[in-house]
Amino acid sequence: MQQTIPEVILCKYGEIVLKGANRNAFEIRLVKEIRRRLYPYGPYRVYAAQSIIFAEPLSERCDMEGAYEAAKRVFGIIGVTRAAVCEKNMEAILACAREFLPEKLAGVKTFKVEARRSDKSFPLTSPEISAQVGGVILSCVRGIRVNVREPEVTVTVEIRDSKAFLRAGQEDGAGGLPLATAGKGLLLLSGGIDSPVAGLMMAKRGMEIEALHFDSFPYTSERAKEKVMQLAEEMTAYCSRLYVHVISLTHIQEELRDKCEEDYFTLLLRIFMMRLAEKCAKGYHCGALVTGESLGQVASQTLAAIGVTDSVVNLPVFRPLIGMDKKEIVREAVKYGTFETSILPYEDCCTVFTPRHPKTQPKIEAVMAQLARLDVEGLIEEAYGTMTTECKLIYEGYTLR
Ligand code: ATP
Ligand code: MG
């Protein structure tokens, strides 16, 4: 599309502004992440200045729409907008307002103008700039009125060191903190709706995520595993890179079937999952486990069952969905773009040999008595030995710079 007015993408960051001495490191991380996300949309110059990150297209070929959508998926950004850029004089600013704003304000009923001058040598004061730009808007947008208290859209004029920037409103960004600024966690990733959301919620808090999936081949199919890989790939729209480790639980499940009471299968299986996840987390320097559990959702997620599974590991277990309803989780899955894949009908290892009456109020002693029928450590070693790893990247061939 031919652009008449030069535009930039402005990304406003959220909580980083509270980070004091660490702010610089957060900012650098965020700029790198935005560079990576914008990579396929053409060359951009990305830099931070005064709590805003600018993405400036460097070529006519830049896809601004694509870059803008990608910027909205970067954690650590609370607001995104496209701004027009012009020379720092009133004539140019008003001409720019006349050309850029009518389309942005079409159908809008009320507005106000805010002007900011980081360059204090600019000859007009902020109220004077606002009044003049407001005048232009009133003259060229039909039916619009000023409302300084509750405007539908705020038009901002910023006079910065080199240029003036003009924008109308902003859209919400993905929020949270920049990726990889809050340690690393290992996500137990099933093919369901919940776990991808749980992982992305932790990524939103700045956690770097690695994933561990358990399969039970041949009881679970190759297609089921591919579905999980597809989910992992979809998650990279937000987390950029995701290592997915896969461990086979087949032998463990056969041992459980042959040697333990059926009612305990699910819980015992979860104990093995947690133990294996802990081992994997320690091997890959993850400081926490992350699961998609939600209190009371299924038998293995009652308080008593969670108490048992928590007691077998020595790492913090984050369950960001614990207080959420399925409906709320689905809404997040739709937002993150994982829902459609999650509902594809493939089996999970948890659905193999499912007990008819799983224990919902397990006693730890009874569970341990069941475990004692098995060579737990030997089975864990053996299963860990089946681990394979794949790396999913948002864009193949891109290295962080
Ligand atoms: P849904 O409830 O929508 O099916 P889910 O599969 O994520 O989603 P559960 O089966 O209730 O949920 O499992 C609870 C949690 O245990 C999951 O969120 C996930 O963190 C972990 N989990 C379950 N199955 C697996 C698996 N095959 N591999 C890795 N983690 C798993
Ligand atoms: Mg679940």
Key phrases:
binds magnesium ion; 6-stranded mixed sheet; 401 residues; VC0802-like; Rossmann fold; elongated; 15 strands; 9-stranded mixed sheet; alpha/beta
Explain this structure:
With 401 residues, the chain is an alpha/beta fold. It has 2 domains: 166 residues, 2-Layer Sandwich (VC0802-like); 210 residues, HUPs (Rossmann fold, 3-Layer(aba) Sandwich), CATH 3.40.50. The strands form 2 sheets. Strands 1, 2, 3, 4, 5, 6, 7, 8 and 9 form a 9-stranded mixed sheet that branches. Strands 14-13-10-11-12-15 form a 6-stranded mixed sheet, sandwiched between helices. Strand 2 and strand 3 form a beta hairpin. Helix 8 packs across helix 13. The model has no long low-confidence stretch (mean pLDDT 93). The site of magnesium ion has 4 residues, from loops.
What is the β-strand count?
Answer: 15
Q: How many separate helices?
A: 13
State the share of residues found in helices, binned by percent: 25-40%
CATH first level of the largest domain: Alpha Beta
Q: Which ligands appear in the coordinates? A: adenosine-5'-triphosphate, magnesium ion
Largest sheet: 9 strands, mixed
Quick check: average pLDDT?
Answer: 93
Distance between the termini: 29 Å
List unreliable stretches of 5+ residues: none
